[in-house]
Amino acid sequence: MTYDLEKINALIAHIYDAALNDALWPSLIHTLAQCVNAEDSIMFGSPEVGSHHMVVLSPLQNATHDAAQAYGAYYWEHDQWKAGAAQHHLTHSGAIFHGDQFIDRHSFQNTEIYTDFFKPMMNGTGVVLTSIIEESTPQRPNPVVLSFYKSFFAEPFDKKDEDLIRLLMPHFQRSLFIRRKMAEERELRQLTEHALHHSNEAIVLMDETCRILFANRKAELMLRHGNPSIQRGYLFSPVSSQQVSLMRVLRDALEGKGGVLKFANDSFFTPRVAVFSPVSAARGEQLQTPARIMAVISEPERFVSDGLGAFARLYRLTKAETGVLHHLLQQQSTREIASSLDISMNTLRTHLKILFAKTSTKNQRELVNFYRSHPNVSLMKESAD
């Protein structure tokens, strides 16, 4: 089969340009949709470094941004086309399938995803061609998916359309690889800059043996005296029970779990709180030293702040996520929260999933209890009183 080489080369150049500029993805996918006579298109997955959440790279042309985000967030859990692809083992990189292979158009009209999304947001789309650009991995639990859509009354996509996608597939994969590497380098620079003395917090980086690799100036000053301190290159607590807890939370961090530990001190030194976060292998291997754990150590009694604001800073919550947590603490239901914040239930569910991930909690009750029992929050409340 022959193609217009000039158009193909222009598409390939556009694909690699998009690796360097996220703003180009929508126009790229829209142009490709026109090439296969599709009415709409979307590309989404979890290509971000350290992210387990769906990221929409190209929003649907006929849907709002929030609707596209919501679709991406639960597509791989609820979509009938996805279920059929899984049954036929079409979830590997390079797989291409048609929606009609798994569910006829009339039956699809009776599904929840059609009623909630495709009918109101996409003018009754019913014909789909989907390709798996990157399959899911332990590091990226959601695959990167590229889909094209037509109305119920349109002709199916044909072999020529499939062949074009197959021709461009390796270029999409390399583009995403470049994009991911750039994101890793960005995160590395941000982590390094944050650690290299630009933070108001005491920052400590440790390797897989928990030996301290780096401590910024504030950490060096803080850890010269008091609890914890540095002993023979390791964090150390002179209180035996706290030393046991320290060893446990360091093991948890090496296993990918965050943790918080409060260290008691005498009247001369104020209590300290350390937040331990895992550093992924992908990030650590890019550092000059093989960091696997980052500890942020603070002395909450030295400043007065609202507990929610301090909690949000510690766990890097966005303004929207902080707002959701604020309403949860007021014992509001999810519907009340969505109404108060003027957001959809799907958007609220996305915020909650991110909150659970950032705080290592599993549900709303556990999140609220974690916040209320957090040592940093309780200390600040006592200080404010």
CATH architecture descriptor text of the largest domain:
2-Layer Sandwich
CATH superfamily of the largest domain: GAF domain
> How far from one another are the termini?
76 Å
Secondary structure tally, helices: 16
Structure class: alpha+beta
The largest β sheet comes out as: 5 strands, antiparallel
* pLDDT averaged residue by residue: 81
- The total tally of domains equals 3
Alpha carbon gyration radius: 25 Å
**Number of E-type strands:** 12
Order of helices and strands: HHEEHHEHHEEHEEHEEHEEHEHHHHHH
Reading off the top of the CATH hierarchy, the class of the largest domain is best stated as Alpha Beta
Q: What is the share of helical residues?
A: 40-55%
Q: Proportion of β residues? A: 15-25%
- Give the overall shape, derived from the CA principal axes: elongated
Trace the largest sheet across and list its strands. Answer: 2-1-5-4-3
CATH topology of the largest domain: Beta-Lactamase
Q: Which segments are poorly predicted (pLDDT under 50) over 5 or more consecutive residues?
A: 378-385
